[in-house]
Description:
This protein is mainly α and 117 residues long. The chain has helices at residues 4-7, 12-44, 59-109.
Amino acid sequence: MQTAHQQSVLTQDEWKELRTQINELFDITFRYAELVARESDAIWDRDRPKFYKPASKSIDEAIAEYEVRLAAFEAERKKAYLEVYTKLKADSVDRVAIIEKLVTKLAQSQGVDFKSQ
C-alpha cells in the first residue's frame, strides 16, 4: 500500500520536465526584461534633442552645442535603459530562483537530485 507522500512523487521524466520549465522561465525573464527596457528606451526617442540654429550663432557653434546636448541625452538614455533592465531582470530572476530553490528542496526530500536534471 502506498502512502499519500509516495503517490505525489514525480516520475523521472516529470522531474526533467520541471527542470526544463524552470530553465524556460529563466530565459523568458531575461527576454522580458530586455523587451521592457527596449520599450522604455523607445519612449526616449520622443524627447531626443532637436537641432536648431539660433540666429546669434554660427552653424559650427550650433552644431557643437547640439552635439553636446545629444551626447548628454544619449548618456542619460543609456543609464535609464540599464537601470530598467537591471531592476526588472533582478526582480524576475530572483523570483524564478526562489521557485528553483523550493523545488530543489522538495526534490531532495524525495531523493531526487533536481540540479542534475
